[in-house]
Structure formats: C-alpha cells, structure tokens
Amino acid sequence: MMEQILEISLNSMLLDSKRLDKPELTIGRGSENDIVINNPAVSRHHATIFTNVNTIVIVDAGSTNGTFVNNKRIVEKQLEVNDEIIIGKMLFKYKLKDFESEDDTVIDLAFQSESDNEDFPEGTFMVNEQDKQKILDRVKSERFTTIPTLVDSNNREFQINNNHFTIGKSVGNNLKVKGFFIKNLHANIVKLNPRTYKIISYGSFLAPTKVNGASIRQKVLYNGDVIEVGNAKMVYQH
Description:
By secondary structure, this protein is mostly beta strands. It has helices spanning 114-117, 129-143; strands at 2-10, 13-19, 24-28, 35-36, 47-51, 56-60, 67-69, 72-74, 76-78, 84-87, 90-98, 104-109, 123-128, 149-152, 157-159, 164-168, 175-176, 187-193, 196-201, 209-211, 214-215, 218-220, 226-229, 232-237. It folds into two domains: 2-98, Tumour Suppressor Smad4, CATH 2.60.200.20; 149-237, Tumour Suppressor Smad4 (Sandwich). It is built from two helices and 24 strands. The strands form five sheets. The chain has a six-stranded antiparallel beta sheet, with no helix packed on it. The radius of gyration is 20 Å and the shape is globular.
C-alpha cells in the first residue's frame, strides 16, 4: 500500500515528514496548527490541506504573504505527486511512500443485539481485509444512514457528503459566501466520526464564525445549531 506524506525542508535540509492521514492538516504560525511555522512571514492560520480518498487539495486561508505551489501563488490547488509548496521559507513536497500492510487487522466492534452476533460475533477478533470491509459496510449501512445537511435562509439544502465541507468566498468551497471580510477559506465542517461533526473557524475579529450567536474557533455541532458566516445563516441538521 501507499501512504501520502509531506516532506518538510528548510534550506535544502530535510527536517521532517508528515503523514496526510486525516481529513485536514492546518499550517500556520499559531500553536493550534498541525504544522507550526514560527516565522513572521507566515500567517496565524496560513493554509489547510484537505485529504480524501481521491484528492489532496491545498487552500490558502487568506494569508498575507501567500501560498505557492510550484512557484505559482494559489488560492487553492489539487496536489499532484512531487508538487512543491512554499510557505514562508519552508518547502513542503507532496509524495507517495510505500509501507507494509498486515494481512490481518484487529478491530473492535460491539453489536446491539444477539441477532447481529449470528454473523459477526461481538468483541475484538482477527479478520482479513475483505471480511473487515464487509463488517464495516454493514455497520455503516445499519447504524448511520442520515447525511448531515445545512439549510440556509432560502431553504436550500447542502449535504455534507465528504470528510470536510468548506465555507468561504473562494469558488472552490462547498458553500460560497460573499462579503468584504469573508476569507477564501472561512470555515470548515470536519467529520470526526459518522455521528459527530465539528466546525472550525478561520474567520477574523471583523467577521467571526458564529454558532447559536456566539463566536467560535471550533465547536462540535448538534442538530438544530445555527451557523453564521458573514450575512449567511444556516441550520445544521443531523
């Protein structure tokens, strides 16, 4: 199998490698980021890399000095293998790396009734990859059928089908919001697990992201929460 990584270099010296193994990876000067660059040329939240099964996309979060891919300033760009990202003085190279996978995987599943246990016994046990996928598909289809949705003031519905749902003024966002102080990437709704989603705000003091009237940096969402980004209001349903 292959894993997706970022190689991090400074002045041609390889400093570290970072796996792209979660839905989003944030880069910036602030300590809350996944990759922290302590340099005044780097914004507090500078850029985010979004990962799903088929694509890797980097989005500049309205940084002052810009994000560059292959020496071109970008707002957002789908990454290809060996693309080079420059933020401040740091160089990030997107690569694929081989790693060994085990034939058997330990997973822990707890079913709700004895009838469930007839096919798949309760507890922790060894399964091969084919059987593991069969179990996970069954659990997903039986337990988690509701797709979270945002409903705006015009009763338009936006389904959150992927691991992340972006909101901002850039064309590439899942939900585009206009406004002078709205950032290219203003907020992101991230899937933590099939039942839990969290919203992360990249907004400024002049245009904060709000949930139920309160400014937030990040917050787990619950059914009926009202999200505000600029003049746009949406109700979260799940």
